[in-house]
């Protein structure tokens, strides 16, 4: 099994640390690199699943399995670090990512996957594997996959799910309160002032032509200073959401045995890659149909 000696997305991220221009376009390139790595990691996860099912010369040691799990989790951590860096420069790009398909965007929660979805994924995979090996389980045999979760593990997952949903709701409420500030007194006053200035410039175009550049600059400065705290608030909320996403992933992996974690991380990667690829195909098909109509 290949164990990639270095992370190209990690190298790409370290290079961007040399400058402050880590914008949406830069992150898009990082994401393409990161996604290619995820596909490679998925192959390694599938190989690990196979090695645990069949006792052959590809059998992995417990240390190799642990190393693979750590590498996959680190891969997600690298994504969050890059996203955090870009959010400081362009938080709006992170909340409306151009590198995502329309299908993915429809299911986004504050720029990413909803943390509670990880539990739905776990339960779905658990049910499928339980049904697939029901005969073995009823005979008292251990399958060591997600269909073989212990009562203690289920209790830990349930407790963690409750905490995650509470935090998720708190962040959602925080976003709702922040969204309402788009119509606060400062924004209403600014919009009234800006529109008034624009109308005056149109009504007296000849007189104001010489001062047009100066007035536009003043208006832009007022808009930027008023919007700055709005964007800072969005950045704070995005970082909280990403932190919860990462802690949820780490928490679930921590509850599972190494063999079970391999199955969970495989399911997560498969779902992400499938939705991304399906979404891209649907977008391409829609664009093609629109072009044919023209």
UniProtKB/TrEMBL annotation:
PROSITE patterns the UniProt entry points to: DOG1
InterPro entries: Seed_Dev/Stress_Resp_Reg, TGA_domain
Domain DOG1: 24-285
GO MF, one example: sequence-specific DNA binding
PANTHER family: DOG1 DOMAIN-CONTAINING PROTEIN (PTHR46354), PROTEIN DOG1-LIKE 3 (PTHR46354:SF4)
Skewed-composition ranges (Basic and acidic residues): 206-224
Name this protein carries in UniProt: DOG1 domain-containing protein
Gene Ontology terms describing biological process: DNA-templated transcription
Pfam families assigned: DOG1
Organism of this sequence: Crotalaria pallida
Sequence segments annotated as region (Disordered): 205-224
